[in-house]
Automatic annotation (TrEMBL):
Pfam families: Phage_AlpA. This is AlpA family phage regulatory protein. It comes from Salmonella enterica.
Amino acid sequence: MERAKILKMYGETERLVREEERRKMTGLSRSTVWRLEREGNFPKRKQTGKNSCAWLMSDLLLWMNERSGYELCSGKEINP
């Protein structure tokens, strides 16, 4: 699915998502995301400053949309 389509589907605009919001959206801890990123199973973060990073909203939505049964913005799976 393309970025514009997924953003429209969820009523979002392209923007950077910081750690706290990412955690609320996915329900995954910082260490789990770090491990998944290293394994190539989670979108890569973008460096936004010397000590800060963020993810593209479309990258997170695409990742979440690829997982069947994933409930957006709650971080809980519907049928685990």
